[in-house]
Specification:
The protein is mainly beta. It contains 1 helix and 6 strands; from the N terminus they run E-E-E-E-H-E-E.
């Protein structure tokens, strides 16, 4: 899936240590234009934070996966970016190109501590 819009907010980076080791994530708010503009919060994990180098005011196309999980009877949904490119760039080769989606990569997707509800 993908969204194209303007980054209107870069939230502070979060980090911690789980049973699987240290982790980092950063969330961003993208505004998708239209008759009724939508604001969507998405996240980048680990080294992707530095690789993407997302800054407020950028016009980007964000390719992402949706993932939901249950914790104590409530469901939480993550919007995880796997590729980011300039909105006007339609071709491959962009510096922020992270490659194929997680299901096509040999590496496992980033993990998180299941004991935390976010």
């Amino acid at each position: 899936m993908e969204l194209t819009g303007k980054i209107i907010q870069v939230l502070p980076e979060q980090s911690g240590t789980s049973q699987r080791g240290p982790w980092r994530k950063q969330e961003y708010i993208i505004e998708v234009p239209g008759d009724y503009p939508k604001q969507v919060c998405f996240m980048a994990w680990g080294d992707k934070i530095d690789e993407f180098g997302i800054q407020e005011g950028q016009e980007l196309t964000v390719h992402f996966d949706l993932q939901s999980r249950e914790y104590n009877g409530r469901w939480y949904t993550d919007v995880k970016a796997w590729r980011v490119q300039a909105a006007s760039d339609d071709g491959p080769g962009d510096a922020a190109d992270a490659g194929p989606p997680p299901e096509l990569r040999d590496e496992p997707p980033p993990e998180f501590d299941d004991d935390v509800p976010f």
